[in-house]
Amino acid sequence: MTDLVLILGAVLLAAAGGEAFLKSILGAAIHLRVPKIVVATTLAAFVTSAPELTVSTVAALAGQPEC
């Protein structure tokens, strides 16, 4: 039961954080007069590449080749 509560709490925090992040990014786009589609495309590209970038960085810092 405790695990379920922790998982649900983590999901709620992730959703709230994602919503706040999205609002701030879109606010910055409006302030800088950058089209929202440019911001959305760039953000989507970064988010989909972030896990591989993290794995590669950790492997390089550990001195182990990435397999």
From TrEMBL:
<feature type="domain" description="Sodium/calcium exchanger membrane region">
    <location>
        <begin position="4"/>
        <end position="66"/>
    </location>
</feature>
<dbReference type="GO" id="GO:0055085">
    <property type="term" value="P:transmembrane transport"/>
</dbReference>
<keyword id="KW-1133">Transmembrane helix</keyword>
<keyword id="KW-0812">Transmembrane</keyword>
<dbReference type="GO" id="GO:0016020">
    <property type="term" value="C:membrane"/>
</dbReference>
<dbReference type="Pfam" id="PF01699">
    <property type="entry name" value="Na_Ca_ex"/>
</dbReference>
<protein>
    <recommendedName>
        <fullName>Sodium/calcium exchanger membrane region domain-containing protein</fullName>
    </recommendedName>
</protein>
<keyword id="KW-0472">Membrane</keyword>
<dbReference type="InterPro" id="IPR004837">
    <property type="entry name" value="NaCa_Exmemb"/>
</dbReference>
